[in-house]
Write a structure and sequence with these properties.
Elements lengths: L1 H50 L3 H7 L4 E2 L8 H15 L3 E13 L2 H16 L5 H12 L5 H11 L22 H16 L2 H10 L1 H5 L37 H10 L11 H10 L16 H7 L4 H26 L1 H14 L7 H24 L39 H9 L3 H18 L10 E13 L2 E10 L1
Antiparallel strand pairs: 1-3, 2-3, 3-4
Helix pairs in contact: 1-3, 5-16, 6-10, 7-14, 11-16, 12-13, 12-16, 12-17, 13-15, 14-15
């Protein structure tokens, strides 16, 4: 009997413990399940926010981002969406106490780190255009105008400078009427004056090269960008605008320009992905016009950063002409046959002032190089290819025909040359940081045009954190979820 009583007491105690412990275990499991569900609810809500990325920017530019301002609705709108999502999926047993968006990373932060990262990832699944690689290879190996060549020009010229008036005959010339040789030389001078191409070529510049060679079917939109409101404002540098003395009558100015004008490509390889991205994703003057975009000449804007198309167009035309001018001048100075033509004309022009012959020779050479560069630009804008480095076979102009576009209109192409976009690539490589920020400008204005009113790249984020307090009965869970692309 005593044993039975002890057993009964023992069983009663076990049952009492179980009656206390089991509900506690069940409750703990229930709370753990509720917390797990709360985590899942927040994760699902965050995924829904990620899924609401800007579809246009992804489809058009392959960049994933969300607008933390939700197109003008305010940052709190994301928190409201997450709150609504949790409530819709949680059931009556759960309640959302608070939701806070925090710890986000902007696309423009840390020198566009996230933008560059996504561009890099994009190129892991694509192939960079072969032409871009070829252009980069050129920039990496081409050092521009040789210092020795400039020194040679300086030594031959003897430091002389002046305008053509100094080379004209004076009324009291020693050449008598009975001096047959002098008369022949004077006639040669008069003929040379007629053949001197500098006035005709300099007239091009005064009329405006861009307007002179613009294709009739090229579209220049009337868009005017509000630059201070765009992402690049305050982040871009100043492009070193080239200016050639297109009067071709002052050797000092020409020499100064050549000493400053260098082609450097050492940093291009480091920026290859961003430059290649700009090359592939943005349009230029030779592309078909897409009226869904704000600008037609997008690459030109990336380089020039002006608020109108016409300004960007003219800027780029002048820069490419300047680039080609240096390279074409190098070729001319090394071509003995063409330099013999220039020398003959210079000798005739300076018959009455022989000391000026070296100056006139190089000014004429510069004029010829410039005219060839304008012809090159004319061809580029019409979809043809132009070699970066000229040879006798692909040189287009002749000294006798400078001042016309007869050679430019020939339909033959240089199949081993570069097209217009490669020359734009070359210019973009000179100011990569500005190009990177201006890409965001173009993306922003096009996105707004597509109906995403209030969108700003300054509010674009790629990563974010959500802090949420979710209650379940008397239990309250503080949860954080990290999300991003």
């Amino acid at each position: 009997m005593n044993n039975r009583g002890q057993i009964t007491a023992y069983i009663s105690m076990v049952l009492a413990v179980l009656m206390i412990f089991v509900p506690a275990v069940i409750n703990a499991i229930d709370v753990m399940g509720a917390k797990t569900k709360s985590v899942t609810l927040l994760r699902t809500a965050s995924s829904e926010i990620k899924a609401d990325y800007n579809r246009y920017i992804f489809d058009e530019y392959h960049i994933l981002l969300i607008d933390k301002d939700y197109y003008g609705r305010g940052e709190a709108y994301i928190e409201e969406l997450i709150d609504s999502s949790i409530r819709a999926n949680a059931g009556d047993a759960f309640d959302v106490e608070s939701v806070e968006l925090s710890g986000y990373t902007g696309l423009m932060e840390n020198n566009l780190f996230k933008f560059k990262e996504q561009v890099s990832e994009y190129f892991l699944y694509g192939v960079i255009n072969a032409a871009v690689e070829e252009a980069a290879d050129f920039l990496e190996n081409e050092n521009g105008m040789e210092d020795s060549r400039i020194s040679e020009m300086d030594s031959k010229s003897g430091g002389l400078s002046g305008d053509e008036g100094e080379y004209a005959p004076k009324e009291d010339t020693d050449a008598g009427e009975d001096d047959v040789e002098a008369e022949k030389s004077k006639m040669s001078y008069e003929e040379a004056k007629k053949k001197d191409p500098r006035k005709a070529v300099s007239l091009w510049a005064r009329l405006g090269i861009g307007n002179l060679i613009k294709p009739d079917d090229m579209v220049l939109t009337d868009a005017v960008l509000d630059l201070p409101t765009l992402p690049s404002y305050g982040h871009t540098g100043f492009f070193n605008k080239s200016k050639i003395d297109t009067e071709f009558n002052d050797y000092t100015k020409l020499s100064s320009f050549l000493k400053q004008e260098k082609l450097t490509g050492g940093r291009v390889i480091n920026d290859m992905e961003m430059l290649a991205y700009a090359y592939e994703e943005f349009s230029s003057a030779t592309d078909k016009y897409d009226d869904s975009k704000v600008l037609h000449l997008e690459k030109e804007y990336l380089i020039a950063g002006k608020d109108t198309e016409i300004e960007n167009y003219n800027f780029v035309v002048n820069e490419i002409v300047s680039l080609k001018f240096v390279l074409n001048l190098i070729f001319l100075l090394k071509d003995s046959e063409k330099m013999a033509e220039v020398e003959a004309l210079a000798t005739a022009l300076t018959f009455y002032f022989p000391a000026a012959e070296p100056v006139v020779e190089y000014l004429l050479t510069a004029c010829w190089a410039y005219a060839e560069s304008v012809v090159d630009m004319y061809r580029l804008l019409r979809g043809r290819k132009v070699s970066m480095i000229k040879t006798r076979d692909n040189w287009k102009t002749s000294l006798e025909s400078l001042g016309t576009f007869d050679e430019a209109k020939n339909e033959d192409d240089d199949f081993l040359g570069f097209n217009y976009d490669i020359y734009l690539f070359t210019l973009m490589s000179l100011e990569t940081k500005s190009v990177e920020y201006r890409m965001l400008d173009v993306m922003e204005v096009n996105t707004v045009k597509q109906g995403y009113e209030g969108f700003s790249m300054k509010n674009a984020i790629t990563d974010f954190g959500i802090n949420a307090d979710i209650s379940y009965g008397t239990n309250r869970f503080a949860i954080r979820e990290e999300a991003g692309f």
